[in-house]
Every structure is written in C-alpha cells, then in structure tokens.
C-alpha cells in the first residue's frame, strides 16, 4: 500500500480573509508559516482557490498590488497594518465674490449713470467758466463783486453752447435713472412684505426723473417757473426716494449685504438732506450764493453716488425681456373662465 504524507503547512485549513480596494477587487488569503499570504487577486468573489506555495504567492502579491492604493494594507508578521490615506489636493479656485465672471453685466448700468452724468455736468461747468458766464467754484468769498453769476448748475447750463450739452446730459440721465428705478422695483418685488414701500420708491424715482427732464429742457432764462418745478421734483422726490431705498436695503438684506450697502446709503441720504436744507436757506435767506452753489454741486454728486451704489445688488441679478407672439385666436373672458373651471374640475 502506498502511504501519502501530508506536510503540516498544507494540512492547515484555508482561512480566507477578504478586504476591498478600488474597483471592488477582492483578495483571498490563506495562513502560511510566515503569516497571511494572498492566494489570488481577482475582480469577482467566485474564483477557484489553488494551493501554490508561500513564496510563489508572495511574488504574485508584489506584482499585482498597486503602489499607491487609497485603502491598501501592508502584510506584516501575524497582523495587518493599514497605511495612512493620501491627502486630497484640491485645485485653487477663485471665490465667487472675487471672480469678475460671476457678476452680472447689469451692475454697470448704475456706474454708467454716475460716471456719464458727473462727467457731463462738469463739462457744462468748464464750458461756462471758459465763456465767462459764471464764477469758478474756488473763487474767494471776499473777492470784489463782478458781473459774473454764481456757479449754480442751472446758470452754468443756461446759455449755449453749455445749454445744449446740459439738455442732452439731463435727458440721458433721466432715462437711465428711470430704467434703474424700474429694475430696482422688479428686483425687490418678490421679497418685499410691504409692497406700498416699494411702490412709493418707484413713484418717487419716476417723479425725480421727470423733474430732471424739465431742468434740462426748460432753461432758467427761458421759463423760470417750469424750471423751478423741475428743481423741486428732482431734489425733493429724489431725496425721498433715497430714504426709501435705504430703508428697503436694510430691511430686505439681499445676499446678506444689507448693512454693507445700507449704511453708506443712509449716510448719503443724510448728507443729501442736510445739503438740501442748507442750499435753500443760504440761497433764499442769507443770499450767500457762492456757498449755496458749492453745496448744490456737492448734493448732486451725492445723488449720483447713491445711484451708483445700486451696482452692489445688480451684480447678483440678471434681467431678461421675454418677447412672445400673440395668438391668432383670442379667447374671450367668459371662455377663459369656462376653461379654467373645467381644468379645476378635472384636477378635483
């Protein structure tokens, strides 16, 4: 009879150990004299387990194990030691607030109004000074009286060629201000709990824009009454609109920027109100026309800075105009109601 001799190592039971890696790979190990040696490295769980020797399996393991494995383990004497995972390196990206591509192009509309109007008014001023129509703003108060008029904006744009530039600048500024007022109303409409405040701001801006057109098209020497009405509308309702928009900015807090945009607007509104009061007092009561004209120029610049501040909120929004074609067969009001009732019945 033939006797079969079995080595002690081969007689040991196979104790498979499974662990997962990338791609669902499964490794099966068997006990060996030197520790746990993987028997095979395969993609599926169902596989035939052979019985190669320990050295062959160790050589096979070195070939098949990846070098940089996220969940790789190291085989040591009688235990498994997990390796430290590699840190994930993230690419540097620009924050949305600092990335210019994230901003809407509508943010440039208030900036265009501010830059265009201020540049146009100063051009009118320099034209009037060059033509010896007004005194410069830096004229000392103790200077000798001259035939030149005080440098009010209305007086600077009263006589051609400065009046032509003044009319064009005021008309364009009124149009841009009206567009900004409408866009601002649309922007705040779904977020305002008290719609009357938003509507009041829109009406005040519209009246101020209309007053700007009266200022530009009816010069002081041609029709003083209409010109003064335009002054009252532009400055009076413009100041009211600034306070309303300041309150709405702090109340709604768009994109958590209510304080960042609201506090400067409150400061500008207070400065505009103070300048408006001092302007009428110095001009009518004390007849200090040089001081009153300087305050008037400062007040107008504050108005323009206030309009320019709308770029803070406009950079987060995109406004679109949707144009649709009319239907050929229009439904009457009764037909519309009947269709609506039928739809509700079907839904029930």
From TrEMBL:
Compartment annotation: Endomembrane system
Record-annotated CWH43-like N-terminal domain positions: 106-316
Top-level taxon of origin: Eukaryota
Pfam family membership, one: Frag1
An annotated GO cellular component: endomembrane system
Membrane topology category: Multi-pass membrane protein
Keyword Kinase: no
Keyword annotations from UniProtKB, A to Z: Membrane, Transmembrane, Transmembrane helix
Spans traversing the lipid bilayer: 105-128, 165-186, 198-220, 232-250, 262-282, 294-312
Similarity comment text for this entry: Belongs to the DRAM/TMEM150 family.
Protein name: Transmembrane protein 150C
Upper lineage: Eukaryota, Metazoa, Chordata, Craniata, Vertebrata
Gene that this polypeptide is encoded by: TMEM150C
């Amino acid at each position: 009879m033939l006797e079969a001799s079995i080595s002690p190592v081969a007689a040991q039971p196979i104790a498979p150990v499974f662990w997962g890696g990338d791609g669902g790979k499964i490794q099966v190990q068997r006990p060996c004299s030197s520790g746990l040696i993987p028997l095979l490295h395969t993609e599926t769980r169902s596989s035939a387990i052979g019985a190669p020797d320990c050295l062959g399996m160790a050589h096979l393991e070195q070939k098949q194990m990846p070098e940089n494995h996220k969940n790789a383990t190291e085989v040591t004497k009688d235990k498994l030691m997990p390796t430290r995972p590699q840190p994930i390196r993230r690419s540097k990206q620009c924050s949305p607030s600092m990335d210019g591509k994230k901003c809407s192009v509508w943010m440039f509309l208030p900036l265009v109004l501010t830059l265009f109007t201020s540049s146009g008014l100063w051009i009118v001023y320099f034209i009037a000074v060059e033509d010896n129509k007004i005194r410069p703003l830096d004229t000392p108060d103790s200077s000798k009286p001259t035939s030149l008029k005080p440098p009010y904006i209305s007086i600077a744009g009263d006589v051609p060629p400065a009046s032509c530039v003044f009319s064009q600048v005021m008309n364009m500024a009124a149009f841009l201000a009206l567009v900004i007022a409408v866009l601002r109303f649309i922007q705040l409409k779904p977020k305002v709990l008290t719609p009357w405040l938003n509507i009041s701001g829109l009406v005040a801006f519209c009246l101020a824009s209309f007053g700007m057109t009266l200022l530009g098209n009816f010069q002081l020497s041609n029709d003083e009454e209409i010109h003064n009405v335009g002054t009252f509308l532009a400055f009076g309702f413009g100041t009211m609109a600034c306070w309303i928009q300041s309150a709405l900015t702090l109340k709604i807090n768009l994109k958590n920027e209510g304080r960042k945009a609201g506090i400067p607007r409150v400061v500008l509104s207070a400065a505009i109100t103070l300048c408006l009061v001092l302007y009428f007092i110095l001009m009518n009561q004390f007849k200090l026309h040089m001081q009153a004209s300087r305050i008037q120029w400062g007040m107008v610049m504050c108005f323009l800075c206030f309009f320019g501040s709308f770029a803070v909120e406009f950079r987060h929004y995109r406004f679109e105009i949707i144009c649709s074609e009319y239907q050929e067969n229009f439904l009457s009001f009764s037909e519309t109601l009947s269709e609506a009732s039928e739809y509700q019945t079907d839904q029930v």
